[in-house]
Structures are given as structure tokens and as C-alpha cells.
Amino acid sequence: MSEPLVRKSAKAVLVALITISVMFPLAWMAIAGFKGREEVLRSPFQFFPDMWRWQNYADILRDGQFSRAMIVTFVGAVVFTVLSLVVNSMAAYAFARLEFTGKRFWWVYCIMPMFIPAMAILLTSFVVVTKLGMLNTMAVLIVPGVASAAQMFFLRQYYLNFPVAVEEAAMIDGANRWQIFTRVFLPQSAAPFVVVGIGSYLAYWNAYVWPILTITDPDLTQIMQFLGTFRSERGIDWGLLMAGSTLASLPTVVLLLVFQRYIVSGVRISGIK
Question: Which architecture, in CATH terms, is 63-269?
Fold first, then answer.
């Protein structure tokens, strides 16, 4: 067997193993949604159910609290994503292309949160939003996390790599800084925006600790909050819980499949200097 063929075969086997290891938990969760109350954790392990129970998915879809949590979380995630793109892209452009007093100091100040664990400031953040009267509002879920040091840094690296000649040509044509940003930089930022946008969406959608601390209103319950408290409120019905978890993961899976090409492109073109 020739060396190129051996290399291709090894690569194919490696890709297959990685694919199986990634997809197996998702496949098991989806199929477990068709199992009975006690069948999910049966020993010895059984991948497929004895009888496929579509009723689990039907029941969770008819659950008003589940549906409301999905809708409220999706709306919040969209608003959070849009605001994150607006705030972080403008800040990134300012630090990449503008010169102003104290620029170096403010840049260090803005990226410092990258090196501070979120749990370390969880209590102080809770005290702040409490004193501001933000508990049990959508604002408490959206506003504190809009400005992201990591996303700001990521977008700044892309803007630093942007050709200076294009910006200078726009200035010669009479464009001001705002016009350059909106008409030159933004149209060329699709790939990094997809990476940042999906990161923001996932951060909001998967949030659990912060909603648990700040939201007690049933009408504002987030989907991870709903799933996290499912056992204590609904009892141990693993099949129904797996069905709900599968449906809760679908928006994220669809999003990643639709934008996967842009994700790879965004990571590649936004190399860190």
C-alpha cells in the first residue's frame, strides 16, 4: 500500500472517530427522548428503546412553560446578539483605527475581563444589578454581558488586518469615520460577525447560573433554567427531559449547520498577530 493511500486512510479513520465521538451524545439524547420514564438509565445500557414513544415529544411541545421558555430565550438571544455585534464592533474599530488620548490604557482596561473568571465577580455583579432594580427583567439577562472583551479583541484583530489603502481612499472621497465604518468595514465583516454572533447567541442560550440568580418570574424563565429545574418540579421522567433537551438544542444545531462555512472562514481570516 502506497504512503499517500495510507495517509488518506488514516485521515479518514480519524475523521470518522471524531465524528462518532461528537455525534454519539447528541444521537443518544435524541433517541432517549423516545424512551420510557425508567428506560433511559436502564442497566445494561441499551441504545434503542424497546418501543418508540413519540408521546414524550408531543407532551413537551404541549407544555406551556416549555414553549414560553423557548420563545423568551430565543428573543433574548437575538437581542443580545445584535447588541453585542453593535457594541463590540464599534469598540473594536475605535481601538484598531482611531487615535485618542489614553488609548493604550483604555485598551488594557477593556480586555482585562478576559483574565478574570466570571465566577469571581458573580456576587458583585449580582449586588450591582440588585441595587439598579434590574432583577426579574430581560435587561438583567442582556445588558451585563453585551460588552465582551474576547469579542472586542477578536474583531480588533480583523480590523487591524484591513488594508489601510481602502480606508485612505474613502477619506480622499470625503467619507468621515462613521461612513468608513458603516460603508467600508461592516460590509467586509460578515465572516468575523458570524463567529462573534454565534458566540453571543450560544453564551445567552446556554446561560444557567446567571438566570437562576436573577430570574424568579415564571414568565421570564430561560430554557436552561427550565431544564435545570425540571427534575425538582416534574419528577424523574428522563424520557420527557431528554425530549425537551433535544428540542432545546435544535436551534443551536441548525444555526451551526447554516453558518459553518462562515465560522471556518472567520477563524482563518482573523488570525491573531
Answer: Orthogonal Bundle (1.10)
